[in-house]
TrEMBL record:
Sequence ranges assigned to domain Glycosyltransferase family 28 N-terminal in this UniProt record: 9-142
E.C. designation(s): 2.4.1.227
Subcellular location: Cell membrane
InterPro entries per the UniProt record, alphabetical: GlcNAc_MurG, Glyco_trans_28_C, GlycoTrans_28_N
Coiled coil stretches, renumbered: none
Protein name listed in UniProt: UDP-N-acetylglucosamine--N-acetylmuramyl-(pentapeptide) pyrophosphoryl-undecaprenol N-acetylglucosamine transferase
Gene Ontology process terms (BP): carbohydrate metabolic process; cell division; cell wall organization; peptidoglycan biosynthetic process; regulation of cell shape
Reaction(s) the record says it catalyses: di-trans,octa-cis-undecaprenyl diphospho-N-acetyl-alpha-D-muramoyl-L-alanyl-D-glutamyl-meso-2,6-diaminopimeloyl-D-alanyl-D-alanine + UDP-N-acetyl-alpha-D-glucosamine = di-trans,octa-cis-undecaprenyl diphospho-[N-acetyl-alpha-D-glucosaminyl-(1->4)]-N-acetyl-alpha-D-muramoyl-L-alanyl-D-glutamyl-meso-2,6-diaminopimeloyl-D-alanyl-D-alanine + UDP + H(+)
Amino acid sequence: MGDARMRLLIAASGTGGHLFPAIATAEQLPDYQIEWLGVPNRLETQLVPSQYRLHTIDVEGIQQRLGLGTVRILTKLALAIFQARQLLKQGQFQGVLTTGGYIAAPAVIAARSLGLPVILHESNAIPGKVTRFLSRWCSVVAIGFEPAAKYLPGVKTIFTGTPVRSQFQIEALDTLPSLDLPIPDNVPLILIVGGSQGAVAVNKLVRQSAAAWFEAGAWVVHQTGSNDPDVESLKHPQYIALPFYDNMARLLHRASLVIARAGAGTVTELAIARKPAVFIPLPTAAEDHQYYNAQVLGATGAALVFRQPELTAEILTKEVLSLLHSPEKLAQMGKKAGAIAVVDSAERLAQLVREIVQ
Ligand SMILES: CC(=O)N[C@H]1[C@@H](OP(=O)(O)OP(=O)(O)OC[C@H]2O[C@@H](n3ccc(=O)[nH]c3=O)[C@H](O)[C@@H]2O)O[C@H](CO)[C@@H](O)[C@@H]1O
């Protein structure tokens, strides 16, 4: 007996920020036969669940080498489009879902050249160049933050939020493995998240500020990344430094306050987990998109947002101390964060797929 389900190709590749939303959505689509399009040596080879067949094409470098040799870039893109077209035709796929990034270009162009519907999800408050360029060819662009719509004039956008891994939902708390970190139960915990690569400038500010927080009774868990040469320079009984932490959802649920970069994934997870935050957006992010991500929570009073060049250790010390001394304010901020969270984002995006790929 053949499989009578509709066939959907998901093109999602690279970082957790692109893969987690796609995986969460795929889980909501058992009524579709899903296969995956990625790149041979990226995270998808580890993260994409084994029930989805993974096809890979070589598109790495298209973005990185822009400007060096237009002919070579276009040749490579043309080859990737050709491969994606072959895959879509031979696999008899009926539509494409992509979360953007460089895999999106060949996937979207190939699908449209075959007249297939495409849903593109953009998680940032300011869509990246690839999204803006490709959006006209998409049936619809699903957006993670509402402000993104105004950067996509003439494009059909639908606000779905960004799907996150289910462990960030408050309801999942009891099902998560407990923390393997020696943090006492009743102390305030400040969690610092630099993102998948860490944030050396944030690390430095935190180390300069932490003494006053320790004195106020707080513990600090500091996710530092692995590129910081000074990571050993702070030692304190209330301080734990980690390059990366796998059980981030559990740690986030335990935190009283989170200091973080403002990648779309992190901002969304904080809203879902209803956590008060201090954002220090990456100043070099394309078109300053992290600042606008941060402002989605900042504008409602759920977070404080500081621009890195203007932020001193004195200011950070003082602002965090004042929050630590005001648990009611922290609780209010967490509530405001929760108010903008889209807890059923994966279901919404899956529903959009059902409406468009049929
Ligand atoms: C440096 C950079 O350009 N980052 C971009 C990248 O973010 P990137 O994907 O790197 O970062 P995000 O903030 O979106 O997500 C980080 C993810 O890593 C997880 N995590 C982090 C640390 C840790 O120790 N353990 C752990 O599990 C977080 O829970 C989160 O799920 O894509 C995002 C979506 O397009 C953009 O908004 C970001 O600006």
